[in-house]
């Protein structure tokens, strides 16, 4: 194809860039994308939705007194456009929005500079933004920010987010009253009379298509006539919040494609960015790449996904990009490296230190061990160790960090106690560092796998009325309504697990939820673990380790041999707000509790530990267990 070069045409109300492959139109100076013309499709975007149209950066914010995770929606409208770069190869646009007390209460108190970068003959564009809160700005909560694209409803019907999670999708019309029946919350809709009969009886819910940050690198849509792909590529997680396991939305019905930078999804209020009056803060979000591709043969349309993955890998290899002109985005020469070897010391497993194999090691803002999963204002840099525990974290921005780690198969969080300061070009060798997972004695019994997930536990079949066909044979936890299945399996008595007899893959329900007993009436549930101790050591105490994969406005109480003991031996107090149960996840925020059990509470022979989830306001209050272990006293072998 012959190129017509890179052309910029700025009018009073619009600015248009044509790079010879794609033509993109923004409002001027608003910076809202109104048109993307590519491969014979006049506009890849939808402009006829009732509410949201085109492509745009947006945010959601609240006053500092708010206790909610949602507030005022703001599709960011720029007030000034500047052409930062214009040459034969590259154009970079800057759409800025200032803030003043005159708009207090109407706009989030931030200075926002959104950048768009287009290269000649490249089928797509890059976008990044600099958000800044200055010393003259008031307090507020930043709840969400993202880039959203509303795609052409006539063209895009097939969605792909992983190799195995892709399918033809229902239409937005199918969710409307008459065609769709709202379920327990607005995002979930039962399709009762869809336009395409094949979707009848399915549930559509955008949360069924979430991904963890570490896996959320490319997703999007395919049009078959003509065969064109629209893809959102995120080459780095450094600017996302909550660490590698934080989950968020990808693409979903409308059709919609998102680039998420921060939300409280699957975490709760801990991941709201809360600013104090006059707090100085600045962060670069992105760049991310919006990529378009095509093939000539309609029969090969699904191969566009493979090409999108190829392009994603190219973008990852190119990180950090060299083209952003903002001095707030450091290039590779201005960044640093941290390397070392992580070992694990657990004397009850091995006298020698074990290599921290396949561990996650990361740099995040200084804090307590595990604080990275609630960190929301800085940058994070993660990698995985090799078979021998060696790791290299590259392209780290200058700053002060703690090094954190977590090792599959071991509970808890590692923290390197010395603050690590990265300067331009630094290469820091930590040598061997040793994680000692929490342990006070030998393992008497254990339930589950310490992997921060409840995936190994029993996940029931969905109610046949609420099926998403994509998840019949994979990720079964993503089906709607599984929380209702517990009461159907245990209508009168709660779960009882007998150590040495029960199988946690079949006998331990994946989530401890309330039992519905009437209209908006719920009953707490008490699970018990039965186990034998032949001879109770009367000198030392026993230790119960409780690792939770998720918690949502729950209170976990633990009693030993007496379910009526008041007060209980242990209470977590109200914990969590990750909403993982309702949003079809198998984990949310990780919690680890240690309960000391006096030997006087234990019996020679059969014992029982009772676990009560005490909060009963709604069906979604509950917990997911990751792993449970009982340890004997130190002197017991």
TrEMBL record:
Protein name according to UniProt: rhamnogalacturonan endolyase
Keyword Lyase among UniProt keywords: yes
EC number: 4.2.2.23
Catalysed conversion reaction: Endotype eliminative cleavage of L-alpha-rhamnopyranosyl-(1->4)-alpha-D-galactopyranosyluronic acid bonds of rhamnogalacturonan I domains in ramified hairy regions of pectin leaving L-rhamnopyranose at the reducing end and 4-deoxy-4,5-unsaturated D-galactopyranosyluronic acid at the non-reducing end
Sequence similarity: Belongs to the polysaccharide lyase 4 family.
EC class name: lyase
Pfam families xrefs: CBM-like, fn3_3, Rhamnogal_lyase
Major localisation: secreted
Location(s) in or outside the cell: Secreted
Highest taxon of the lineage: Eukaryota
Domain Rhamnogalacturonan lyase: 357-429, 443-630
InterPro entries named among the record's database cross-references: Carb-bd-like_fold, Gal_mutarotase_sf_dom, Galactose-bd-like_sf, GH-type_carb-bd, Polysacch_Lyase_4, RG-lyase_II, RG-lyase_III, Rhamnogal_lyase
Keywords: Lyase, Secreted, Signal
Transmembrane segments: none
